[in-house]
Each structure stands twice: as C-alpha cells, then as structure tokens.
Automatic annotation (TrEMBL):
Transmembrane region(s): 51-78, 98-120, 141-158, 194-219, 231-251, 263-289, 309-332, 344-362, 368-387, 399-425, 431-452
Pfam family, one: CBS
Record's keyword terms, sorted: CBS domain, Chloride, Chloride channel, Ion channel, Ion transport, Membrane, Transmembrane, Transmembrane helix, Transport
InterPro entries registered for this protein in UniProt: CBS_dom, CBS_dom_sf, Cl-channel_core, ClC, ClC-type_chloride_channel
Residue span, CBS domain: 549-613
Localization terms from the record: Membrane
CDD domains xrefs: Voltage_gated_ClC
GO terms for cellular component: chloride channel complex
Top-level taxonomy: Bacteria, Pseudomonadati, Pseudomonadota, Alphaproteobacteria, Hyphomicrobiales
Protein name: Chloride channel protein
Top-rank lineage group of the source organism: Bacteria
Membrane topology designation: Multi-pass membrane protein
Acetylation keyword on record: no
Gene Ontology molecular functions: chloride channel activity
Species this protein is from: Alsobacter sp. KACC 23698
Length: 619
C-alpha cells in the first residue's frame, strides 16, 4: 500500500492533520505496540481457521438450517398432495385414503425419479458427487448441478411414499451451499473441504436438533479426521443450523421419550447382544439392497421399468404395513415409546427392511439414515419383548433397548458410531442411557467391521469402483503420475535361465527389477526375490526363471496414477511392478519400486496434513 495511490492519499492526509493547531499525531509506544501485536496475533492465529472460514461457516450453518426446515415442509406438503396424508407424521393410513391412491403415488414417484435422473444426466457430463465423494476425490468441489441431481430425485422419492430417508438430500444441500460459497471466496483446498464438512454438520444438526451429532458426522464421514483447526468452523455451523431450525420451527425434540430409560448393570449384556444383532441385521439389509438390484437388473435393462416394479412391490407392502411409507419419523417416536411392540414390532421390522431394500434396489433415491433408526428401534423392542418370554432372564427395559437398537443399527449402516450414539441421545433428550447406548454402538461397529468391512455408503462406493472409506482426501494421489518414478529393469533374463543365474541377477540387482522374457522377447513378468530366497538353498530343484515370477502378474500402464499403484502395492508385499506399453502389454518399458511410491505418497500426505492444520501458506 505504501507505493500505491491509496498510500499516497493516506500519507498526505496524515501530514495535513499534523499541521493543524493543537493537533499532534500519537507517538507509538512499546506498550501500545505490544497490545496491537497481541490483537493481531489473536486474529491471525497460525493454528486456527481463518476468519473468512469462520464467517462462511456461520453463514452456511444458518442457510443450511433454513433449507432443512424448507425441505421438511415441502416433503410433508407433497405427501399430503400425493398420498392423501403425511407419511412423515403418522404410521397408519387414514380411512379416507384409498389403497389405489398410494399405489398411484408410488408409480408417479417412480416416473418422476426417472425423469429427473434423465434430465440431470443430460445437463451434466459426469455423475453427481455427494459430500463424502467430493471431499475425498475432488477437494470439496461441488456445483449447483451436483445439488439438483441428488436432491430432486430424493424429494421425488420420499414425497411420493418411497421407503427412503431425506437426510441425504439435506446433507447435500448444506455441502453444496458450502462448496459454492467457498469457491466464490477462492478458499484454498483445505479450507474448502473444511467448509463442506461444516455444511454437512449443519444439515444433520438441523434435521435432528443434534448439534454434537452433526459435528461428529462431519468429522467421521465427510472430513475423515479431526483436528483442532477444524473444530470451530464445524461447531459454529452445527450450532447455527440447530438454532435456525429452532427459531423457524420452535418445536420439541424429534423423538419425545415418555417413559424412563435409566440403565442398570443387567442392561449392559442386553446392549451388547443388541449390538451384535444390529450388526447382523444391518449387513443383511445392505446385502439385500444389492440382491434386489441384481434381480431387477436381470429382469429388465430399463431403469424406469425397475422403478415401476419396485413401486408395485412397495404398494403391496404398504397395504399390509402402512408404516413402511416414507422415512418413518413418526414410527420411530412410537417405537421408542412402546406403542409398537411384540409381534407387531417384529413384523414391521421385516416389512420396513424389505421396503427400504426394495426402494433403493429398484432405483429410488435416498438413504438409510432414518430407516436405520426406525428398524433399530423395532429391533430393540423385539429383544425386550423376547426377554419377557425367556425364563430366568431379567426383563429388559423396552425404551432403553429401543435407544440402543437405534444407535447400534445406525452405526452399522451409516458408519459413524459416535455420531449415531450422540444423535440418539440428543434427539431424545435422554442422557441417562449414554453408557449402554455407547456399548451397543461400539459392539455393532466392531462386528460390522470384522464381518463386512463397509458401511452402506462406502459399500456403494466400492460397487462403483471407488476405493473410499470416508472423506479422507485421496484426490492428490489421483492427480500425480508415476512417470518420474519409472526406472529401467536392471536385468532381463530368458524364461529358461537357471536358478543359479536368477539368484545372481537378483543379488546384483539390489532393489531394482529383474524381468523375464520368452523366446520372442515378450514380457512374462518380474522375478519375485522372496521366492528366489526360499528356493536358492535347493540348487537341485529343476526350476527356471519362468517358475520364479511373482504371481499374480500385474502389468501397470505408464498412465496410471500414484493412487492406482499404491492400491496395487497395498494388496501384497511385492517390491517392484512392471510398467508396460498400453498398446503392447508384453513390451516392458520399465519398473517402479514400492519404496519410491510410498515415499512420495507419504510426502504428499504430510503436505496435506500441514495444510489441514493451517501450517502452509499462512503468515
């Protein structure tokens, strides 16, 4: 500013003021300088988030809370218009609603979802990304089209009776608002990812009036990690999202507990049992979604026809169990308070699980967030009812079992155990059951990881070929090539080379590759040094170079990214991979060593960590 026109005007003004009678410029003192420096350090803390990020998080939190309120009311209005009643607010179908109207609404929803999916696919050249995928693969980059392509089909599904939740839509709204605002402000990559997490936290906080759960959801799923720098923006967004909904709605907690749920020592084994059952049930629901999807795909290639078939199946289920329609918020409240118990709870549990799997497998859009809470509450009520039938077993508290079931099944399907535990406690306002709920959640998460290894979101990513386990930023590895790491093979041996020749070549090659070719110069693979070390003490074995190739033979094109190579090396302990010509896979171009790959990936990860902590590019 000193050399510019603004600086000149500023200095001239100070000189004129200094000439006024009785006017003297204040003289800087050490005490004043120290005080000013303290304020400057306060607002330029190296380890904290910049003020622009904090202010943006506040704005996103308020906007996300208002959008959650709007989406909730839009869904209720559309359900009343299509179904004749608000499925979000009641379990039973009113007498004035004819069964044909429910079926017609579901069919209309199927057609609208197909139309919305077709329209958004024509307007965008790539599939839409959600908050987790955007943070993991695209540095938090989301567009308005990502929002429309996700939110509109979900609203069309839920508003016309499909058995899915609307939480994926409101989370997408918060994340897109955050990403668009962050890009308009030209925030750096780490701050943009942080703001997307704050938007998702605000949406979950507003949807369930659970700010702590919203924060933990962002840390566990959307951001993939926690650090001190990310706490303030995420917390502010979650609190303001909660405040916005409370100011607009002013209603009580989403689920009101009308019975006591104090925990006793005898409840801890029951909570652990519910955790195991919830994990098994959650895995079954996730697998059932894939089974329904494959079955319908085998019947027809048309996605619209699949949705129509799914709508007909949902209509039949709704005729038997109306509680399967919509996300099931009202049913959760009744299940927690013991209004759905015994055989009714078991029957509705099976119907809701089948309806949710049928909805998602047929192609309706939405998530299993609300469904996992509802099914979990029914599971808890079923366990409490069965405990009354088994002699010499203490009778379990039904409300307590329902709370444990909600958190445990949510931890299994959503993949965010801490967030689901706090969501149950906050949304019900019952903290006396915290230890028992925590135990059931931990057991469910542990069993799910051991038996299945995925939540519903990460499992769907795997089915699409995306090796994502959350919002960890792996996009940097996907943008780094491997050309600088490729080295020529140290030795190239014929397939008939003896064991002694192979052993000498491996010894002289060190960490470099020893390739094996056939008589026509075509690559067969690379020698496995570990295999040579095992057999070289048996010189009489009739082995040749072709017998000592590492299996399975993996051929990497030079266009592969660092992420691709890290994934290959992570599958086994091989030390070198061959780089081949994409047009002639039997032509060796060079080799790449695992030590070089992991050194570079560790360097990139450290650079990313420093940026996330605010230690790079800050004064």
């Amino acid at each position: 500013m000193r050399g510019g026109p603004v600086g000149a005007i500023w200095r001239g003004g100070l000189r004129r003021i200094s000439r006024w009678p009785g006017r003297r410029l204040p003289t800087a003192t050490p005490e004043a300088g120290a005080a000013f420096g303290g304020w400057r350090r306060l607002f330029r803390n190296r380890s904290g988030a910049p003020l622009v990020v904090l202010a943006s998080a506040c704005a996103v939190g308020l906007a996300a809370g208002a959008c959650v309120f709007a989406v909730h009311n839009i869904v209720i209005w559309l359900q009343r218009a299509s179904l004749g009643f608000a499925a979000e607010m009641r379990v039973a179908v009113p007498e004035h609603t004819a069964p044909w109207r429910v079926g017609a609404a579901l069919l209309a929803g199927a057609l609208l979802v197909s139309l919305a999916t077709w329209a958004t696919s024509r307007l965008s050249d790539r599939p839409p990304s959600d908050a987790v995928e955007a943070n993991a693969l695209r540095g938090g980059y989301l567009t308005w089209m990502d929002g429309f392509a996700v939110v509109i089909p979900i609203l069309a599904s839920v508003s016309f009776g499909a058995s899915v939740g609307v939480e994926a839509a409101v989370t997408q709204v918060g994340a897109v608002l955050a990403s668009v605002l962050g890009r308009r402000l030209k925030l750096p990559r780490s701050d943009l990812r942080l703001l997307v997490g704050a938007g998702a936290a605000a949406a979950i906080s507003a949807a369930y009036q659970a700010p702590i759960a919203g924060m933990l959801y962002a840390f566990e799923l959307v951001l993939g990690s926690y650090n001190k720098r990310s706490l303030a923006p995420v917390a502010l967004a979650a609190l303001l999202g909660f405040g916005a909904v409370a100011a607009l709605d002013g209603g009580p907690k989403p689920f009101i507990i009308r019975q006591t749920a104090s925990a006793l020592w005898a409840d801890f084994p029951v909570a652990a049992l519910i955790g195991v059952l919830a994990a098994l049930l959650g895995i079954g629901v996730m697998v059932l979604v894939g089974g329904v999807e494959r079955s319908l795909a085998s019947l027809t290639r048309s996605e619209t026809v699949r949705r129509v078939l799914g709508a007909l199946g949902l209509a039949a289920l709704a005729f038997l169990a109306p509680g399967v329609l919509g996300s099931g918020h009202a049913a959760i409240d009744e299940a927690v308070n013991g209004e759905i118990v015994g055989r009714l709870a078991i029957g509705l549990l099976g119907a809701k699980a089948l309806a949710s799997a049928l909805s998602l497998g047929a192609g309706f859009r939405g998530g299993l967030f609300s469904a996992s809470l509802f099914i979990g509450a029914l599971l808890g009520q079923a366990v409490a009812w069965l405990s009354q039938l088994i002699p010499y077993v203490p009778v379990a508290n039904p409300t307590l079992c329902a709370l444990v079931g909600m958190a445990a099944l949510g931890a299994c399907i959503i993949g965010s155990p801490l967030a689901m535990a706090f969501l149950v406690l906050e949304s019900t306002g019952n903290y006396e059951a915290s230890l028992v709920v925590a135990l059931g959640t931990v057991v469910s998460s542990l069993v799910t990881d051991r038996l299945f290894g995925y939540s519903f979101a990460t499992w769907r990513f795997q089915q699409r070929g995306l090796a994502l386990e959350g919002g960890h930023d792996i996009s940097r590895l996907t943008t780094v090539g491997i050309s600088e790491l490729v080295r020529p093979a140290k030795f190239i041996l014929p397939a008939s080379a003896s064991l002694d020749q192979v052993a000498r070549a491996v010894s002289h090659a060190g960490n470099k590759a020893v390739a094996v070719q056939d008589d026509h110069g075509r690559l067969l693979g690379l020698v496995d040094p570990a295999l040579v070390e095992v057999v070289e003490n048996e010189p009489d074995l009739p082995l040749a170079a072709a017998d000592l190739i590492g299996t399975p033979v993996v051929r990497v094109p030079p266009t592969a990214t660092l992420a691709d190579v890290v994934a290959i090396f992570g599958q086994d302990d091989r030390g070198v991979l061959p780089i081949v010509d994409p047009k002639r896979p039997d032509r060796l171009l060079g080799a790449i060593r695992s030590r070089d790959v992991f050194r570079l990936s560790a360097s990139i990860a450290e650079q990313q960590r420093r940026e996330d902590l605010g230690l790079v590019g800050r004064q």
